[in-house]
Amino acid sequence: MFLTLQSYDAFIRDVLQVAQLRRSAYVCCANAHMAVEAVRDPAFARSVNSATWVTGDGVPLLWALRALYKVRQERITGLDVLPTLLYEAARMGLPVFFYGSTPSILKRCSAFCAEHHPTLQVAGLISPPFQPLTSGEEAHIVDAIVSSGAGLVFVALGCPKQEKWMASVSGRIPAVLLGIGGALPVLVGEQRRAPNWMQRAGLEWLFRFVQEPRRLFGRYVTTNFWFICHFFRQLYSHYMHP
Q1: Non-local CB neighbours of 236 within 8 Å, separated by 6+ positions
Q2: Does residue 2 lie within any of the structural domains?
Q3: Which is it for the CA torsion 80, 90, 113, 105, positive or negative?
């Protein structure tokens, strides 16, 4: 996995520029879960590494980058990028599209945007079915996004589904697709975000786990274990075979 090395402000500026030009691009916000999935699934790794930007979302990933390569990278998370880009899109008159999540969350998202960003052009909201889409259904969704004129498309399908979807359709959509995972429920107040000290300490995952223990227990136990294993294996290889 190859992270994009730039500041938060530079990243936002680049995304907005590409979105204004209506060029096809997509963003993966990488964390420990994504890194482990990329090791396990080469096809998924190709989807991530083909992204226009791969940002450092998870603090443990940034710690690993520093330990292995002495690189200090600013954290760029979907939770932060979403509200920033909504504000900028409203200011610039750039239409946005929401794809993913549930109908109830999208309804609250629409109300949130109307209240907090009244000038924002919400070009569309689609909550797809949970089962895999047929080629016809996918083509219909792609056509809807393209015809909406959106410059930014926020994709909330969860990892690894959203990264695979963005990689497969990006070239057909003249917009920037951004995989934002579970950022929408936090944006609309359905879930709370971890306090700043937990974010800095790399414990945001723990805060999320406390809110959704049944859904996240298996994933976090497995992911964290394998991330640590892969990190120390790479650290050993890095220093033994520089």
Answers
A1: none
A2: no
A3: negative
